């Protein structure tokens, strides 16, 4: 039996898996700004799930940050009360067993590569696009963490091949400007639409306007598609993944999955070139075999991926 815990800023979710079968699930509010209360909630969730499944279990924990490889302390967490804490050691002490911890986007990628939309793919780039933008990487079914535990921090790189009106870009909370997150997050789309129209709308409302034939809303979606295509093309150029999986609220636009792959060939280097096209035109006839897919497990991918940090027993 495997238990996964997804430690979010507003909720903590726990899931017990028997191989791929869900046995029990619980969700409770996060005790914000209270580290010790957070520890106690994690302990209680694990013990309750274990009791409901009537079996001892491994425990994996997904967090909105990372463990510093040198100190073991939490860093880069937007749940700031975790920063600088020895979370792994403290949870292991409470539960009297080893615990595996990974960034929540890494857990998302793990879930989708284990038994989701990218099952059986060798190299997977899993993207969470919502209020923020994060990503994780799996290779041969294992999370790639990196020397500084920042592998997949795609959202805090600059938007590639910026257009004249995209430079220098919006300031980001990380202290830089023009980050991918500032363009591709939900608030980024809202901000872009307001900049061009003077009207402040949330992404679902923009999509509804576009479907109803509003040209300005359609233009906002087209700009977003072009930016997403450029951003993932840069990933393809570096990582060359088999599959890119989109999750989060901004993944629920069906048009992305047809339109973005049509656009990204202009920016992917060295993909297959059809012989019947003009090779002097950037992207002409380019065949990119990477697949862009929507997450199979939706909002459950994070907690499932935390459970998948341990192999089935």
Question: Could you describe the 3D structure shown?
Answer:
There is one protein chain. A hairpin with a 3-residue loop joins strand 1 (2-7) and strand 2. The protein is an alpha/beta fold and 313 residues long. 34% of the residues lie in helices and 21% in strands. The longest helix has 25 residues, at 215-239. It has nine helices and 14 strands. A five-stranded mixed β-sheet has the order 3-2-1-4-7. Strands 10-9-8-11-14 form a five-stranded mixed β-sheet, sandwiched between helices. It has a two-stranded antiparallel sheet with strand order 5-6. Mean pLDDT is 91; it is low at 273-280. It has helices at 35-53, 87-95, 104-115, 180-184, 186-197, 203-211, 215-239, 256-264, 301-307; strands at residues 2-7, 11-18, 21-29, 58-63, 66-67, 74-75, 99-103, 123-129, 133-139, 142-143, 243-247, 272-273, 286-287, 291-294. The protein has two domains: 2-103 and 300-307, Nucleotidyltransferase, domain 5; 117-295, ATPase, nucleotide binding domain (Nucleotidyltransferase, domain 5, 2-Layer Sandwich). The relative contact order is 0.15.
Please name the fourth-level CATH homologous superfamily of the largest domain: ATPase, nucleotide binding domain
State the secondary-structure class. Answer: alpha/beta
Average pLDDT works out at 91
Total helical segments = 9
Task: Give the termini distance in whole angstroms.
Answer: 7 Å
Here the CATH topology of the largest domain equals Nucleotidyltransferase, domain 5
How are the secondary structure elements laid out?
Elements: E1 2-7, E2 11-18, E3 21-29, H1 35-53, E4 58-63, E5 66-67, E6 74-75, H2 87-95, E7 99-103, H3 104-115, E8 123-129, E9 133-139, E10 142-143, H4 180-184, H5 186-197, H6 203-211, H7 215-239, E11 243-247, H8 256-264, E12 272-273, E13 286-287, E14 291-294, H9 301-307
Helix pairs in contact: 1-2, 3-9, 5-7, 6-7, 7-8
